[in-house]
Amino acid sequence: MTNESHNPQAVYEARLAQLRAACVAHEKRFDHIANARLAVFAVALALGGAAWASDGVSWWWILLPLAAFVALLVWHERTARERTCAKAGVAFYERGLRRMVGDWPGDGNQSTDRLEEDHGYALDLDLFGEASLFELLCQAKTEAGE
Predict the structure, then answer these.
(1) DSSP, residue by residue, 63-118
(2) At 62, is the secondary structure helix, strand, or coil?
(3) DSSP secondary structure string, 16-32?
(4) Half-sphere exposure of 131 (CA within 13 A, CB side)
(5) Residue 108 CB coordination number (10 Å)
(6) Three-state secondary structure call for residue 52
(7) Is the pTM of this model over 0.70?
(8) Could you report the per-residue pLDDT of 75-128, keeping only the tens digit for each?
(9) What is d(CA 65, CA 44) in angstroms, rounded to the nearest whole number?
(10) DSSP 61
(11) C-alpha distances in angstroms, 77 versus 22, 45, 84, 124?
(12) What torsion do the CA atoms of 7, 107, 133, 144 make, to the nearest 10 degrees?
């Protein structure tokens, strides 16, 4: 193992770079699939028009672009989910890096619902509110998660 594997900041930066590259790749693939879906739909419309206009083209030919469209639809949805996961990973590692360099205050949950102001040490300990321990550690997205 190298020395970099023991440096959390270097590991986070490397993983962040990988996830950003994955986001770009997913975005490109998402756009390409969307364009392919549009092209397949246009082919299906052309075949439908040809089948309607003449007896030489069978309606059964529409099943080919329809099957391709459904396959592209499934692939598009999977790519969208992968893109969403990669974006969530980027946000996670960006927040982790901000925490490591001390640039985290004002970035997290600043809830003061649990703050007991009449407690003797509550305000001195900075447990809740801006730049508090709760803001630093809380990753919850819902009230129940807090």
Answers:
(1) HHHHHHHHHHHHHHHHHHHHHHHHHHHHHHHHHHHHHHHT--TTSS----TT--TT
(2) helix
(3) HHHHHHHHHHHHHHHHH
(4) 4
(5) 20
(6) helix
(7) no
(8) 999 999 999 999 999 988 988 888 788 765 556 555 555 555 655 555 555 555
(9) 6
(10) G
(11) 16, 23, 11, 50
(12) -110
Tokens representing 101 are 């360099």
**Whole-angstrom Cα distance, residue 66 to residue 109?**
47
Cα 55 versus chain centre, distance? 49
Sign, CA torsion 65/67/72/77: positive
Q: How many residues make up the chain in this entry? A: 146
Q: How far is CA 128 from CA 65, 86, 107, 117, 134, in A?
A: 58, 31, 13, 11, 5
Please state, in angstroms and rounded to a whole number, the distance separating the CA atoms of residues 116 and 130: 15
Cα–Cα distance, 99 to 96 (Å, whole number)? 5
Residue 39 DSSP symbol: H
CB 115 within 8 A of CB 122: yes
Return the amino acid letter for 110: Q
